Amino acid sequence: MSETVELAVVGAGPCGLGVGVAARQAGLRCVIFDKGPITSAIGMYPTHMTFFSTAERLELGGVPFITAADKPTRRDALKYYRRIVDVFELDVHQYEAVTEICGERGAFRLRTRRKDGDVAEYAARNVVVATGYLDTPRLMGVPGEELPKVFHYYKEGYAYTGEDCLVVGAGNSAVDVALDLFRWGARVTLVHFADVLDPGVKPWILPDITNRIKSGEIAVRWRSRVAEIRPRTVVLRSEATGEREELPNDWVFAMTGYVPEPTLLRQLGVSIDPATGIPCHDRETMETDVPGVFIAGVVAAGYDANKIFIENGREHGPRIVRTIQSR
Ligand SMILES: Cc1cc2nc3c(=O)[nH]c(=O)nc-3n(C[C@H](O)[C@H](O)[C@H](O)COP(=O)(O)OP(=O)(O)OC[C@H]3O[C@@H](n4cnc5c(N)ncnc54)[C@H](O)[C@@H]3O)c2cc1C
User: Which of 17, 23, 49, 284 could staple 28 via S-S, CB 3.0–4.6 A?
Assistant: First the structure.
């Protein structure tokens, strides 16, 4: 592209789109790249997932998000964010991955690769990295994790009826998966290193999972970890005694979370706190310690994705645009 744009955004998730909307409202020329389709992370959610947020808390640019139910579904959100792109005529390049960024404020160059293999280069005065976290699962690092029966993402449970399924974790995703598999007639065992569910589990599903565990309908191994995954079994190790237990197993759903992928930020020289994974940035402006490089969305939360999500990550766009306008 011969023209230098004011902002180039990497990632067309809800928070990257939020930057595009704010730029459009301010009359700044902005281009948004995504290596997949628009809001591909939401596309990766479980097929029939319902958000824990109510619709108005996911809105962008003041465009009402109308749903019949109190909380939107994954499908509602996919449709809503597509409409946002139409309504604000955002310049989104789907299926175009940003592979490299170099330069400095006022003169950045972004290299991209399209799905057909073609490469391209773009010029921008400012860059926003809004690359999310869902592409990189937090691995357990155990033998057998590479087996085809192991998943870090979940779609729906019909294919697991009558099968022995292990769910690793005790957060919202793990609980949702365990309940869905149970309702599809799978034999479910949940394994967790602590002896309670995560405190952040949605209050409206807590009674359901608690009763399923109490009644034994969903088996649980508290204070245990996966030691090994084998073709027909899994080996669990007790944190308390170190004792090992082998269970029959057909499928493993490792709902162990996801971590941001730091390559582009590292290329640009942005400092990243090794302990938290948080890129060094000003929380008011979202600018990093490299002038002209901003971050938006969950990537700003580092390893703890529960701190920033759509509800609060959507505020980053207006902050970034205000900062750029003020210069
Ligand atoms: C099951 C589940 C339920 C959730 N429910 C809620 C909820 O109810 N409410 C809420 O507020 N949040 C919820 N969240 C969290 C929410 O999904 C994330 O916080 C949100 O997606 C973060 O938005 P983002 O734009 O920062 O990143 P993402 O949505 O992850 O988008 C990042 C985008 O960057 C793209 N990308 C990455 N690298 C490149 C590259 N090199 N080049 C081009 N593109 C790239 C990716 O393809 C992706 O589309 C939920 C998450 C999950 C997993």
Answer: 23
